[in-house]
Design a protein that fits this description.
Rossmann fold; Arc Repressor Mutant, subunit A; alpha/beta; five-stranded parallel sheet
Amino acid sequence: MANSMTSTAPRPIANDLRVVIIEDQREVREGLGTLIRGSAGFVCAASYASMEETLSRIDRAQPDLILTDLGLPGMSGIEGIRVLRERLPGIPILALTVYDDDDRIFEALCAGASGYLLKNTPPARLLESMREAADGGGPMSPEVARRVIYLFRTFRPPERADYRLTQQESELLKLLVEGHHYKTAADQMNISINTVAFHLKNIYGKLHVHSKSEAVAKALREHIV
């Protein structure tokens, strides 16, 4: 790819996942595009070299999922996630980065990232993670999951707010923090996916958040569960 953005792909058959890539390193960006275009059920809707370019052009790409680096020139990936979350609240955003430090993981989740993957993620797992995120999950690389569990166990807020979560709501929120998505949480709790959605709506209202990633970030930040 000679320039920083692919031509916007035509709208594919339903169920094909339209992925937008945000990555400043050309070789990595092109490699991801080749992987996505060569995989059944995926479409590379567009690719961009910066967050500024993304924000100016992403509307025409009609993404189903956004895959973004964090160490971008200009506007950082974390700040971009925050802006994209406001503009496209229903679109999952996966961080794909070399950074596995606590600060960036925590900030990305608080900004609204749906999952956090390292760039050493095998291609098959990356594709699986994108599908998982599109289905409402929160995929994380094993190293990152360990850091999240550590953060969850060690973070203590100055004061613990009482959000009056029911026992089932607390159990569901804990499962989401551990990386479960709707189906696996439903299986763990022995309830239907519709019941999970019902509890999740109540959790959003009580925590004053608008997405699963925001709920998880708040749970970690305030040690709610």
